[in-house]
Amino acid sequence: MSHIALLPSSGMGHLTPFIRLAALLTVHNLKITIITPYPTLSLAESQVLFNFFSTFPQIRQEKLHLLPLDNFSGNSEEDPFYCHIEVIRRSSHLLSSLLSSLSPPLAALITDMSLTASVIPITEALNIPNYIFFSSSAKMLTLFISFHTKANTNLYEMDALQIPTLEPIPKSWIPPPLLQDIDNQLKTYITENGKEMTKSDGILVNTLESIEQESLAALNGGKVILGLPSVTAIGLLPPCFNKCQSLAWLDTQPIGSVLYVSFGSRTAMSREQLKELGDGLMRSGYRFLWVVKDKKVDREDDKDLEDIIGNELTESVKERGLVVKHWLNQENILSHPAVGGFLSHCGWNSLTEAMWLGVRVLAWPQHGDQKINASLVERIGLGIWESSWGWGGEDIVKGQQIAEKVSELMGNELLRMKAVSVREKARAGMELGGTSMKMKALAKLIETWKKDN
Ligand code: UPG
């Protein structure tokens, strides 16, 4: 039996697609191992891993024991998730003995994009094929992979970034740290990993040909960068847990009436913006389920809801909504019949879940790849994006503006129907039940791994 190992990095945004892919591979007569960096940064990751290995006992877990965190303490200004990735990177030499000890020997390793530069030299030395799993959109991959070639260009002076054969990416969609001329975490991360991707054996993206045909064609046609291995659209990866959490409040709401509001696993809004958001949700007149996050890392989120949004708002939102400050299983929420819309930061996993479940989206990108992802929302008919709102923390978006956009989304039946047709497209490649795949691209890769072994 061919043996495949998967190596995710830090944060739920990177772990989620890996466990979905691992779950999908189990039906293909492969032995699967997931190498999990230990300890995880967030509580959510450790809980999800625990549930995952209990649900899929046939998948083996190997822990990559990270060097003590106090060997590397990132600057407090820096993003804790990038600091954690740096700790994983600095511990990656430990992978050599771990990978060679796996039995039977690996037919392939699937590595998170953020570890490309540190893991490729290790797998090259061990002669193990290494595939990079890119956890954002193919459109973001076009920027990620070509950014290092722009090192001598003053991006700040440009109106847009031109990638051959593709529509230019407006400057306002490019994550601001990439426009700075000084070094920073995001710039280093994208430059170093993007450059090394050409040395991998292939790149996997959780997307669909029918959704991102232009970007995929440019990447595979050598238009973005020469010498790139094949980029395979393996999505949309379906959710892998059975329904596991019931939410009594949601069960009592009318079908399609609730707006679900969440900004992913690592985005904390300012208190001022949270108050405006609460005000906007109330003014909209629609029902809502709102997940409030006060800190980037959930383990540090120790305040009560009242401390964050204030007593008055906490009381008034009860009229029409439910506000929580803990982890909810988003797959369950988005698949609930009462949910009729999603106010999202456009993390790629959230968008692929909305596509898979046919829920219309109001896009409110906050940082990183999220504006580039948001640009796909309107284009594919998944929802709307008010692009004048800017990056998270840049300007405060007022409650009235939020209320208007929420009404525009929730009051528009055509948008609901369009999102349902995105779902039909997303599922067209999968037979009922999701286990017997017609996904030719992934099936072809699996055949390669079996043959080469
Ligand atoms: N999730 C829950 N419950 C919550 C919050 C999140 O189940 O209360 C899940 C959600 O379903 C999704 C994942 O956690 O599967 C979050 O991933 P994503 O929607 O992609 O957002 P982030 O956590 O913000 O992910 C990071 C980046 C994002 C990027 C993504 C993939 O912030 O911009 O697209 O990683 O690279």
Q: What can you see in these coordinates?
A:
The chain has 453 residues and is α/β, with parallel strands linked by helices. It contains 19 helices and 15 strands. Strand 8, helix 9 and strand 9 form a beta-alpha-beta unit. It is globular and about 60 Å long. The termini are close together. The relative contact order is 0.12. Bound molecules: uridine-5'-diphosphate-glucose. The site of uridine-5'-diphosphate-glucose has 26 residues, from helix 1, helix 14 and helix 15. The site of uridine-5'-diphosphate-glucose (UPG) has 26 residues, from helix 1, helix 14 and helix 15.
Which features characterize this protein?
single chain, 453 residues, alpha/beta, seven-stranded parallel β-sheet, six-stranded parallel β-sheet, 19 helices, 15% strand, globular, binds uridine-5'-diphosphate-glucose
The average pLDDT is: 92
Estimate percent helicity: 40-55%
Name the poorly predicted regions: 432-438
Report the radius of gyration as a whole number of Å: 21 Å
Query: Which structural class should the secondary elements be placed in?
Result: alpha/beta
Content of β-strand:
15-25%
Using the alpha-carbon principal axes, give the shape: globular
In whole angstroms, the N-to-C terminal distance is 9 Å
